[in-house]
Amino acid sequence: MWIFDTFYGLSLPSSGSGYGAIEVNTKYVPQRSIAVVTFKMIVSLAMLGGAGYWLFRQPYLPDSLVSRLAIIAGVELIYVGIAFFIVPRPNNNDVGYLGGLVNNPFRYSDNYNRSLRTWSILLGPGRFVSTSLLDFGALLGVIQEDPTEEMQFANEMGLENGEFAGSSLSSVTCTDIEVPSEQASPAKPAIGAVNRGDFD
User: Fold this and answer.
1) What pLDDT does 84 receive?
2) Residue 153 in 3-state DSSP?
3) How many helices (H) and strands (E) does the chain have?
4) In 3D, which of 25, 5, 23, 20 has the Cα closest to residue 116?
């Protein structure tokens, strides 16, 4: 199959085909809006509670209440941690035909990208919960955020980080920057032949 994949990709260089990637997330930038953090925490607690209740009702767990709760907490913690650190990035331009509903028999990369997309969907709720918990911890001052590019620039320039809080240098527009207007240079006298009519 990899032979067909190679020759098919060489025959269509502009098709945007290619394998996706699995990234390891190590940085975190918190959400600063109190309303957004509160809403995310409510939804995350509901998700954790619903998943915990479903696991609690499973018959294969131990009969002891403490053991059940410990297993449920451990499973949810592991899932949330994996969802935060592991980020699948599928190449959505190469998932087969009809958005991935029909397989491409001449390629293997579409199978790989569909698998990454499936894992991205499965890990999406856990990543939402993990960022919600980190946002809440940062809002309480328990967790310290990772420095952004703006904060690193402020530290290099010797500025206060508070001046860049909630802002982004990449979103600045021309109207945000005051450009000194150029003073009009005085008109230079024209040099040329003198017309006698100028003295009449």
Assistant:
1) 92
2) helix
3) 5, 2
4) 20
Residue 175 has pLDDT above 60, yes or no: no
**200: which DSSP letter?**
-
CA 42 vs. chain centroid, Å, equals 22
Of 41, 50, 72, which is closest to residue 135 (Cα–Cα)? 41
What residues contact 144, with CB distance under 8 A and at least 6 apart?
A: 138
Q: Phi first, then psi: what are they for 87, rounded to 5°?
A: -125, 105
Amino acid at 37: V
Burial class (CB in 10 A: 0-12, 13-18, 19+), 43: middle
Residue 117: CB atoms within 10 Å: 19
Give Dmax over CA atoms of the chain in angstroms.
117
Give the integer Cα–Cα distance in Å for 56 and 71.
9
Is the per-residue pLDDT at 16 higher than 80? no
Say if CB 20 and CB 88 are below 8 A apart: yes
φ/ψ region of 63 (left if φ > 0, alpha if ψ in -120 to 50, else beta) reads alpha
Q: What is the pLDDT of residue 69?
A: 93
3-state secondary structure 113-149: HHHHHHHHHHHHHHHHHHHHHHHHHHHHCCCCCCCCH
Do the beta carbons of residue 20 and residue 120 sit within 8 Å? no
Does 1 or 116 have the greater pLDDT score?
116
Q: Tell me phi and psi for residue 121, to 5 degrees.
A: -70, -40
